[in-house]
């Protein structure tokens, strides 16, 4: 290399820092790069995503292993074999969780049927706790008394089951 070329390269390295290095790609086509440590800055890691607009990103667009590498949670970039192995493991775990959940539901149904366990109470709450008629079936449509004519215990809500005999 000529001395002029070396001088230009050294000047560019001094001003701009080292160039990016392609580290790998994932199964979605995203490309992962690193910019080596330079005297003026630390090592940088980044991804050139296949979906360029930020609004197009969704959960799972980047494999967990690559995301850990970008965030410097791991030193070495993942291999495609490692990613596929971990993906298969996660799918196996999902299936096992589904199987255990189904077995648990069947066991609970059996225990409910045999009377070993009480079934959970199914409650229906109507209204909101801040409403004046919370817990009642519905607000009363009867006219309200005024302060001048009100007699304590003179009105009993319909359907309360108490008799009003004096």
UniProtKB/TrEMBL annotation:
Composition skew (Polar residues), residue ranges: 138-152
Domain of life of the organism encoding this protein: Eukaryota
GO cellular component terms, A-Z: mitochondrion; respiratory chain complex I
Residue ranges, annotated region (Disordered): 118-166
A Pfam entry, by short name: NDUFA12
GO biological process, one term: mitochondrial respiratory chain complex I assembly
Family: Belongs to the complex I NDUFA12 subunit family.
This protein's name: NDUF2 factor
Gene encoding the protein: Ndufaf2
